[in-house]
């Protein structure tokens, strides 16, 4: 668990982060979202002390992060950034091994960990271990960047616009990978982005920042249904908020028992996708497949619309 | 293409070495340049010895310059030395307008004649390109790479040794190459202040109006410079490949 | 430490010590205390006896002269504003020079034209420290190109006027100048002529060659490689090598000899400098043309410009700053290399340098070397300013 208490950062008269307090739950993904200059990156970078706070403190598992030297703290926290920041003079394997080596792991353990991570990130070790970063595609570089951040099995992974430099298709894939990996390792992820869709898609909880202040910190649905500030509604978008709300619920969560006519839909699809599918095929219902236990299930347009408004 | 270049290089090296070892065999080549039966091959000293002394002075000066320039370059790019950075950059710019001959001439009054002023002048002049390139290289480490190194918990020293310096190496080597090539030429002028080197041959030729001597001294120096240049370029390519900088 | 008790309030009252200032003030003070301020020589060739500043001037005199230095030290240690630091450094430079001149006056017996008073190590180190302080202040002020040139012109005028006033006449370098005044003017002119003339020829020949290299990639490597090799031939050697063919030419065609083509003298020097100058000009022309954005060239062609029009109206103007950078390199390099021309009778300020080295007359060396450095420095400042202006115009 990460506890942020009254954290501020000032540069001269300029307050970049203004008295922010929040609790980040273990094993969750928290997304900090805001426009550029909102202080979101600075807030993130104060967690691993790449930026030293002007006031307030950060507790990691109840322990003040200032109780140890900054570089030792950072070795326990994963950090992935936009444009990956891979060391161009080191191979993929050496890049991933950076922090384990700094921590003095035995060579066999380092090697095993590197191979494990390459498998997890779908990079064939035989082909990619000895490759240099510039020989990889953008998506692969980004994956190596995240693998490197996770190499020393950190409890916490900080990500600063990690997918900002990727094109939309690779980006979607990278987001799915992140969700998978977070589930697999149970890492606590704090991710900064300016992309609201990304925030809603990835975040268990979303923190909206503007002008250095934390406007709202809540579950995504709450941001839509109970925005704490006009800026939050503007960030989340008024025009399609009903559809966004639908996108937060999966078909499996609200499927009705029994079979029904209409197109087939995967249980993991969102209600937004279900509605779109029904509108497209002109059907009032659809069949949900892949529910756990294999029981027949369905959805109707009316049932979906129930979930498209606040309350 | 690559083949011809390698062949040319080997040929040049072979020519240089054989001329230095058995210069008299080349007498017929230089004889047409002499008048009134003057000797076609430099006979007032051992050519090989002079070439070695020349090269030795240049290499020693380059080694000293490298150590000092890289050290200073590291110093002014650390937080503790940052106050000196703007001045250092200006000094490098101004320093490079100083003609090497003037540096040499001004050194003589300070330390007297002989090897010393040459060594000092070569050292001082050789500092500049290496220092400049070190600063530029250390300041242009990609931001994302620095950020990643810090974020992963490298200490400042670890970052310098395992990230910044390796990435700076190609540019630093280029600086060393520039200063080596300039110095091979400048060292010939050292002979006007009684330093041992190939300049002796050239100056002897100028004094006795013997073009053969001038040509010998000039060609040997030029060949040495070209081969050094070439060797350094080869080394740079290798390091570039290891550092993966295009 | 006993001073521990008084240190904290002192730190609060004064801003943090300036690191560069501390270093330079310490070096300057050490040099003044430990090294001779002037050297007294019975004549221009014998080694001199060192004299510290306090031995030279009466206490009140040296105190008055050193006041600007003390003020400067305080400014250098505690004041951060570059404008003030520059003013203090310049004032101290004037103070230091006046001190030197007064010391020379005091040490020169009346009507004695043989004894030489030269600046000693202490003076030179302090001069360098002051120069560094002034340079640092100017760097921090970041003056634009116009201001830099104006500042340089002002400083030069001031220095020349001061030297012409006769105030410094008792200094040994000035003594040397008085002896060689007429020759000095001639060699200076020769130096500048050789440097500029070979530059001009190199631009006239090199720029078209660069365009050619850009247009025909096949010949690029060969030409640049050849020019690169020429650059590695040491200057004295190239001068010497060219003596033979030029001498032969002159012997064959007396007409050529009449217009100055000779085996010795300025001709081989001019040809050698021309050859050295080609590489930076050609290489920078190629580089400049290569950097011209493809979009601009495509657009020009798309609008129906002929290749020649594209070259003159689009490519060359856009490449000009880079070509000018090449010209700057050449001019500075030439000013230095002309020095060596003296060895083959080419004249120029190098004459004094090598004569001085030959006679172990340090003052004569300085009489040649100092103006060379000043010339090269002025050329660099002027052309840097020009490049900057061109770059701004381009944007």
Any key phrases for this structure?
heterotrimer; A: 311 residues; alpha/beta; 6-stranded mixed sheet; 4-stranded antiparallel sheet; 14 strands; B: 246 residues; mainly alpha; MetI-like fold; 10 helices
Describe how the helices and strands are arranged.
The complex is a heterotrimer of chains A (311), B (246) and C (395).
Chain A: E1 2-11, E2 14-24, E3 29-34, H1 40-47, E4 55-60, E5 63-64, H2 70-76, E6 77-81, H3 92-96, H4 98-102, H5 107-120, H6 125-128, H7 138-150, E7 156-160, H8 168-185, E8 188-193, H9 196-202, E9 205-210, E10 213-218, H10 220-225, H11 230-236, H12 241-247, H13 251-254, E11 256-257, E12 264-266, H14 271-281, E13 285-289, E14 297-300, H15 301-306
Parallel strand pairs in A: 3-8, 3-9, 6-7, 7-8, 12-13
Antiparallel strand pairs in A: 1-2, 1-4, 4-5, 9-10, 11-14, 13-14
Chain B: H1 2-21, H2 27-30, H3 47-76, H4 85-95, H5 100-111, H6 115-139, H7 143-151, H8 156-189, H9 199-207, H10 211-243
Helix pairs in contact in B: 1-10, 3-6, 3-8, 4-6, 5-6, 6-8, 7-8, 8-10, 9-10
Chain C: H1 7-13, H2 19-34, E1 38-41, E2 49-51, H3 53-56, H4 59-78, H5 82-107, E3 116-119, H6 121-141, H7 145-164, H8 172-215, H9 217-232, H10 235-252, H11 254-258, H12 266-291, H13 294-302, H14 307-341, H15 350-359, H16 362-394
Helix pairs in contact in C: 2-4, 2-6, 4-5, 5-6, 7-16, 8-9, 8-12, 8-14, 8-16, 9-12, 10-12, 12-14, 13-14, 14-16, 15-16
Can you put this structure into words, describing what you see?
The complex is a heterotrimer of chains A (311), B (246) and C (395). Chain A is built from 15 helices and 14 strands. A six-stranded mixed β-sheet of chain A has the order 6-7-8-3-9-10, with helices on both faces. In chain A, strands 2-1-4-5 form a four-stranded antiparallel β-sheet, covered by helices on one side. By secondary structure, chain A is of the alpha/beta class. The model of chain A has no long low-confidence stretch (mean pLDDT 89). Chain B has one domain (47-245): MetI-like fold. The radius of gyration of chain B is 21 Å and the shape is elongated. Chain B has 246 residues and is mainly α. In chain B, α3 runs parallel beside α6 (115-139), α3 (47-76) packs antiparallel against α8 (156-189) and α4 packs across α6 (115-139). Chain B is built from ten helices and no strands. By secondary structure, chain C is mainly α. Chain C has two domains: 19-172; 181-394, MetI-like (MetI-like fold, Orthogonal Bundle). Helix content of chain C is 78%, strand content 3%. Chain C has helices spanning 7-13, 19-34, 53-56, 59-78, 82-107, 121-141, 145-164, 172-215, 217-232, 235-252, 254-258, 266-291, 294-302, 307-341, 350-359, 362-394; strands at 38-41, 49-51, 116-119. Chain C is flat and about 80 Å long. The model of chain C is unreliable at 1-13 (pLDDT under 50).
């Amino acid at each position: 668990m990460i506890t942020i208490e009254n954290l501020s950062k000032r540069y001269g008269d300029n307050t970049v982060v203004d008295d922010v307090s929040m609790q980040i739950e273990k094993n969750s993904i928290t997304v900090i979202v805001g426009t550029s200059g909102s202080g979101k990156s600075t807030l993130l970078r104060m967690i691993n002390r790449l930026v030293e706070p002007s006031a307030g403190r950060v507790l990691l598992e109840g322990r003040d992060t200032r109780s140890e030297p900054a570089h030792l703290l950072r070795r326990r926290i994963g950090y992935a950034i936009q444009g990956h920041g891979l060391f161009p003079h080191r191979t993929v394997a050496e890049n991933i091994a950076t922090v384990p080596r700094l921590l003095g792991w035995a060579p066999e353990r380092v090697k095993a960990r590197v191979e494990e991570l390459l498998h997890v990130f779908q990079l064939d070790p035989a082909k990619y271990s000895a490759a240099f970063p510039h020989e990889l595609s953008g998506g692969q570089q980004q994956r190596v960047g995240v693998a490197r951040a996770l190499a020393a099995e950190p409890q916490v992974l900080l990500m600063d616009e990690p997918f900002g430099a990727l094109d939309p298709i690779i980006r979607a894939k990278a987001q799915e990978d992140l969700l998978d990996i977070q589930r697999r390792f149970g890492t606590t992820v704090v991710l900064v982005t300016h992309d609201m869709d990304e925030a809603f898609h990835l975040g268990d909880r979303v923190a909206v920042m503007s002008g250095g202040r934390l406007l709202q910190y809540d579950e995504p649905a709450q941001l839509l249904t109970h925005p704490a500030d006009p800026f939050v509604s503007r960030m989340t978008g008024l025009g399609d908020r009903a559809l966004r709300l639908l996108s937060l619920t999966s078909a499996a969560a609200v499927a009705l028992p029994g079979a029904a006519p209409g197109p087939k839909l995967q249980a993991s699809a969102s209600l937004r996708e279900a509605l779109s599918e029904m509108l497209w095929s002109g059907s009032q219902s659809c069949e949900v497949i892949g529910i756990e236990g294999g029981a027949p299930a369905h959805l109707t347009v009316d049932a979906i619309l129930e979930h498209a408004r606040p309350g | 293409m690559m083949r011809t270049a390698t062949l040319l290089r080997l040929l040049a090296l072979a020519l240089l070495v054989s001329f230095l070892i058995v210069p008299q065999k080349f007498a017929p080549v230089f004889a047409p340049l002499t008048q009134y039966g003057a000797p076609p091959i430099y006979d007032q000293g051992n050519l090989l010895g002079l070439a070695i002394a020349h090269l030795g002075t240049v290499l020693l000066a380059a080694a000293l310059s490298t150590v000092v320039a890289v050290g200073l370059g590291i110093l002014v790019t650390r937080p503790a030395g940052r106050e000196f950075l703007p001045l250092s950059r200006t000094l490098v710019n101004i320093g490079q307008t100083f003609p090497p001959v003037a540096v040499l001439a001004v050194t003589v009054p300070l330390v007297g004649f002989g090897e010393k002023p040459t060594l000092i002048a070569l050292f001082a002049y050789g500092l500049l390109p290496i220092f400049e390139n070190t600063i530029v290289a250390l300041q242009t480490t990609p931001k994302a790479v620095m950020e990643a190194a810090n974020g992963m918990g490298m200490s400042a020293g670890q970052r310098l040794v395992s990230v910044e310096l390796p990435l700076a190496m190609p540019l630093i080597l280029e600086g060393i190459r520039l200063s080596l090539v300039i110095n091979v030429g400048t060292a010939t002028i050292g002979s006007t202040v009684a330093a041992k080197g190939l300049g002796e041959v050239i100056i002897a030729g100028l004094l006795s109006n013997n073009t053969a001597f001038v040509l010998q001294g000039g060609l040997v120096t030029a060949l040495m410079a070209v081969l050094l240049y070439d060797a350094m370029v080869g080394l740079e390519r290798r390091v570039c490949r290891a550092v993966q900088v295009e | 430490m006993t001073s521990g008790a008084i240190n904290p309030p002192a730190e609060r009252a004064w801003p943090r010590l300036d690191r560069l200032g501390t270093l330079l003030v310490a070096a300057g003070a050490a040099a003044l205390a430990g090294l001779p301020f002037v050297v007294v020589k019975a004549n221009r060739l014998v080694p001199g006896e060192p004299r510290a500043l306090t031995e030279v001037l009466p206490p009140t005199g040296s105190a008055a002269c050193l006041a600007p230095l003390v003020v400067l030290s305080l400014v250098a240690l505690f004041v951060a504003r570059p404008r003030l630091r520059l003013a203090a450094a310049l004032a101290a430079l004037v103070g230091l020079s006046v001190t030197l001149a007064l010391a020379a006056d005091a040490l020169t017996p009346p009507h004695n034209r043989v004894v030489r008073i030269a600046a000693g190590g202490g003076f030179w180190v302090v001069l360098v420290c002051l120069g560094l302080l002034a340079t640092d202040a100017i760097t921090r002020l970041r003056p634009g190109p116009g201001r830099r040139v104006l500042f340089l012109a002002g400083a030069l005028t001031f220095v020349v006027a001061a030297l012409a006033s006769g105030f410094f006449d008792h200094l040994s370098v000035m003594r040397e100048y008085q002896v060689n005044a007429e020759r000095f003017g001639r060699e200076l002119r020769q130096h500048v002529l050789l440097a500029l003339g070979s530059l001009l020829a190199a631009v006239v020949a090199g720029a078209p060659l660069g365009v050619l290299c850009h247009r025909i990639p096949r010949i690029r490597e060969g030409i640049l490689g050849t020019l690169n090799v020429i650059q590695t031939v040491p200057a004295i050697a190239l001068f010497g090598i060219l003596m033979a063919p030029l001498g032969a030419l002159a012997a064959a065609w007396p007409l050529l000899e009449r217009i100055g083509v000779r085996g010795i003298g300025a001709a081989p020097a001019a040809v050698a400098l021309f050859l050295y100058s080609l590489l930076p000009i050609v290489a920078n022309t190629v580089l400049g043309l290569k950097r011209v954005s493809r979009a601009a060239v495509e657009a020009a062609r798309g609008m129906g410009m002929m290749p020649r029009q594209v070259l003159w109206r689009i490519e060359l103007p856009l490449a000009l700053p880079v070509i000018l950078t090449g010209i700057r390199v050449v001019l500075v390099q030439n000013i230095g290399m002309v020095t060596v021309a003296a060895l083959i009778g080419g004249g120029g300020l190098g004459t004094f340098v090598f004569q001085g080295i030959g006679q172990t007359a340090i003052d004569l060396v300085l009489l040649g070397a100092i103006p060379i450095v000043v010339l090269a420095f002025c050329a660099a400042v002027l052309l840097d300013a020009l490049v900057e202006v061109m770059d701004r115009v381009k944007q």
